[in-house]
């Protein structure tokens, strides 16, 4: 009997020591990946609140982001400026994807989805998929967090690496960051809340509700003169060939060898625009854009009361880089 008690005590000590060793080692990368896979499959709805800091080409901006998600495919991404005023809302429901600009009472509707390698700032399911599918990732664990560094595609001209920091216990997002190819931080999203218990009604994903978030009176900047807004970056060998300014609409034309590009700038008309065919949703670091399909494509985006339309045969990655370079430009 005494021997059995001694053996039982020794076995208890061994079990405790083994548990301490395992706890000291912490989560392995394999166990985290498996838990992330299970979390993605079980995540039916959530609400997240985050602050995004964007640093591009000498310009620094702050956005307040609130995301609602309802499985299998509904979402609502609200983007507000540093003052908390809602500028744009991205909504997906059974009718398609909408980009709504409440201050301008303007919306785009199209059929499609996020472009490849896009959407990984706002939708946590996409973040998890990016981690699981990354062919090149680095895993580290610190007190209270686990971190994945993910190498981006070679054809991405802006982003070299994505970093995802998760809570060690829940694996909920704490921070997402993008770095350029020189290792400089471009975008940081700091999550303040992540609530998987939030539930929503179908009407919460109605674009008309998002339009109602705008002011009753049109802002003065939405109708006043804006000058000529020129991009500060163009592909090598490209240059401007023509500027037309009619007072309400600006048309800029560029050429690079045999290729051409047209950039149109105007105040948008208060209406819903439905784009024919399929299109892709692109994130211009806080400004959503739509890119149509085809050899000759058009990218649409709205910023500071001006609607832009860029048409040409350049790759969407180059068009996105040109579009982002207009953010630091003021009308001349």
3D architecture notes:
- The chain is α+β, with helices and mostly antiparallel strands and 332 residues long.
- The chain folds into 2 domains: 30-211, outer membrane lipoprotein receptor (LolB), chain A; 220-325, Phosphorylase Kinase, domain 1 (2-Layer Sandwich).
- Helix content is 19%, strand content 44%.
- It has helices at 2-25, 29-42, 124-133, 207-211, 316-325; strands spanning 45-56, 59-70, 74-80, 86-93, 96-101, 106-114, 137-142, 145-151, 161-167, 173-179, 185-195, 239-245, 249-256, 259-266, 272-283, 288-292, 297-303, 306-312.
- The protein has an 18-stranded mixed sheet, with helices on both faces.
- Strand 12 (239-245) and strand 13 (249-256) form a beta hairpin.
- Helix 2 (29-42) runs antiparallel to helix 3.
- The radius of gyration is 24 Å and the shape is globular.
- The model is unreliable at 1-6 and 8-24 (pLDDT under 50).
Give structural attributes:
332 residues, alpha+beta, outer membrane lipoprotein receptor (LolB), chain A, Phosphorylase Kinase, domain 1, 18-stranded mixed sheet, 5 helices, 18 strands, disordered N terminus
H/E order of the elements?
A: HHEEEEEEHEEEEEHEEEEEEEH
The CATH first-level class of the largest domain comes to Mainly Beta
Largest sheet: 18 strands, mixed
Give the overall shape, derived from the CA principal axes. Answer: globular
Overall pLDDT confidence: 87
Distance between the termini: 94 Å
Unreliably modeled segments: 1-6, 8-24
Helix share, percent: 10-25%
What's the helix count? 5
Report the sheet-strand fraction.
Answer: 35-45%
CA-atom Rg in angstroms:
24 Å
CATH superfamily of the largest domain: Lipoprotein localisation LolA/LolB/LppX
Supply the CATH architecture of the largest domain. Clam
């Amino acid at each position: 009997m005494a021997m059995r008690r001694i053996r039982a005590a020794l076995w208890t000590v061994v079990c405790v020591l083994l548990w301490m060793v395992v706890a000291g080692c912490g989560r392995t990368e394999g166990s985290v990946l498996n838990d992330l896979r299970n979390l993605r499959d079980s995540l039916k709805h959530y609400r997240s609140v985050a602050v995004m800091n964007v640093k591009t080409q000498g310009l620094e901006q702050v956005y307040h982001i609130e995301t609602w998600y309802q499985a299998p495919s509904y979402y609502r991404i609200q983007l507000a400026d540093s003052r908390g005023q809602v500028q744009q809302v991205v909504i997906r429901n059974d009718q398609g994807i909408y980009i709504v600009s409440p201050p301008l009472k303007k919306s785009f509707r199209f059929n499609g989805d996020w472009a490849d390698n896009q959407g990984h700032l706002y939708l946590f399911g996409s973040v998890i998929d990016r981690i699981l599918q990354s062919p090149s990732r680095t895993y580290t664990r610190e007190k209270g967090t686990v971190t994945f560094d993910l190498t981006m595609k070679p054809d991405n001209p802006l982003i070299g690496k994505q970093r995802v920091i998760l809570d060690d216990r829940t694996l909920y997002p704490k921070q997402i960051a993008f770095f350029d190819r020189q290792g400089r931080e471009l975008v940081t999203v700091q999550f303040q809340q992540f609530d998987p218990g939030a539930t929503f009604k179908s009407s919460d994903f109605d674009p008309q509700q998002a339009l109602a978030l705008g002011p009753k009176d049109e802002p003065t900047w939405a109708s006043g003169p804006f000058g000529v807004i020129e991009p500060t970056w163009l592909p090598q060998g490209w240059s401007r060939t023509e500027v037309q300014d009619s007072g309400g609409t600006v048309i800029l034309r560029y050429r690079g060898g045999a290729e051409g590009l047209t950039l149109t700038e105007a105040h948008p008309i208060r209406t819903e625009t439905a784009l024919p065919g399929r299109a892709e949703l692109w994130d211009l670091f806080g400004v959503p854009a739509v890119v149509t399909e085809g050899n000759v494509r058009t990218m649409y985006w709205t910023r500071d009361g001006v609607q832009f339309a860029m048409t040409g045969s350049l790759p969407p990655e180059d068009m996105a880089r040109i579009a982002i370079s207009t953010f630091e430009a003021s009308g001349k």
